Amino acid sequence: MLNIILSGAPGSGKGTQSDLLVKKYGLQHLSTGDVLRAEIATGSALGHQIDALISKGNLVPDDMMYGVIENYIASLPKDCKGTIFDGYPRTVAQAAALTHLLKKYNMDAIMIDLLVDEQLLIQRLIDRGKMSGRADDNLNTIRHRIAVYHNQTEPIAHYYLHKGNYFAVNGNQTMADVFLQIMRIVDRESKK
Ligand code: AP5
Ligand code: MG
Questions:
Q1: What is the DSSP annotation of 99-157?
Q2: pLDDT per residue over 102-130, tens digit each?
Q3: Across-strand partners of 167?
Q4: For residues 103 and 100, what is the distance between their CA atoms, to the nearest angstrom?
Q5: What is the pLDDT of residues 6-18, one digit of tens each?
Q6: 85 has which bridge partners?
Q7: What is the DSSP letter of 41?
Q8: Can you tell me which atom of ligand 1 is nearest the CA of 61?
Q9: Which residues does residue 110 pair with via DSSP β-bridges, in sequence order?
Q10: Ligand 1, atom 8, residue with closest C-alpha
């Protein structure tokens, strides 16, 4: 079994590469951003709270995310080949919580970090924003999301480097070339 944390700045290609990984390796996939947007779509009081944070580009509190991840891991099928965590963890506290939860099931995860130049991130998200309808795909919020990423999420790379589970990928290339790099890592690590 291979669990993959697919990390990277907003617009780095986490969702795009997750779809390719699901097709190729039959992995489960959790995008915490999608889970949160689904809660907003229900119109619940919780959804309104989440919307206020996401639409400004701020993170949802760690304790709110903990329950989402705990339930997801508990509900993974017994014959699961592994799962992709897309957009989780996003803080060092979330990384520690994930390690703890996975350990309960005798599991661990590797981190694949999609590294993309800032100008390219902004361009991709501005382009996507023309169609996506996402409240956070506008220039001001994109800039804030990138700043939040640098301040709160980038430090998790050190956490996984320290654990020996960190792999960086050049995410500036075409979708197919980025996927080739990821496949090399997955094929090698899943044999261990
Ligand atoms: P989330 O939904 O995870 O958004 P994000 O991190 O901002 O990233 P995106 O989904 O915008 O980009 P992506 O990396 O998936 O790239 P994509 O493949 O779409 O989170 C949203 C919000 O939810 C957060 O800001 C936060 O508020 C909250 N949240 C989520 N998780 C949380 C957590 N764990 N804790 C707390 N809060 C949390 O690609 C982008 C575009 O580029 C697409 O149009 C795509 O077609 C294109 N593209 C992709 N790859 C390439 C390529 N190689 N070449 C050319 N174009 C490409
Ligand atoms: Mg995404």
A1: HHHHHHTT---EEEEEE--HHHHHHHHHHHHHHH--TT-SHHHHHHHHHHIIIIITTHH
A2: 999 999 999 999 999 999 999 999 999 99
A3: 112
A4: 5
A5: 999 999 999 999 9
A6: 5, 30
A7: H
A8: 36
A9: 4
A10: 10
